[in-house]
Description:
By secondary structure, this protein is an alpha/beta fold. Helix content is 21%, strand content 31%.
Amino acid sequence: MWRNLILAAGLFVCVIPAAVLAQEYRKTVRVEVYLPECARLFIEGRETRSKGPKRRFVSPPLSPGKYIYAIKAIIPGPNGPRTVTRRIDVRPGDFESIDLRAPGKRPITDVEYEPTPQKVVDALLRLARVTSKDVVWDLGCGDGRIPVTAAKEYGCKAFGFDIDPERIKDSLANARKHGVQRLVTIEQRDIFTLDLSEGPTIVTLYLLPRLNAQLLPQLRKLPPGARVIAVAHRMADIEPDEQIVVDTELGAFDVYLWKAETLRGD
């Protein structure tokens, strides 16, 4: 498997059109690994030459299929080195982030915060066909731009959930700025503990493939007619009911829609 994962060492010095780069990334796997700066990192048994607390890797273009990579870090410590291993299940086009630091050294979030471009927010709400009767739940709401936009543009109730207290402050400030406090509720919660069987008619996500898969048992409890919208990443190996590509100044973003019935296999 090592031949399928190579180090992306340094920055690209040539200019590649965003559309071409997006197409290429649909065929590759991108992985970032967080670990102590002094750690040694191995992928599929081969030691990498990269250094630093965050190390990024990109595979060459891959044929469609399932790939599993074994990642190992040897981390020095006062009582001798310790070994941490992970196996990641990926598909061509995936991006995954793995944290091999000790629990007390990790952030409280499962994924580094990256705001959804507003153009993508607008497009995903159109794809979901939001109406004033819907209730939108954004899991991992960041600065609250999805629930705020849903409430402002469609007059629906919207909820944002995030585990990071700083993101909660940002979301509440955003709701006040746009005057939608009456419609928007922001709560500091662990999204993996939420009961989705009642309440939401639309759930929005911008997470990672493994986190989307982790949410599947909860998402399968959504009421009939509910829709799930995910930015950039697949939902296990379940084919979406609809898919669009949104071009932004940051590149192209895939946006997927699944009906609750599709996620349950009804």
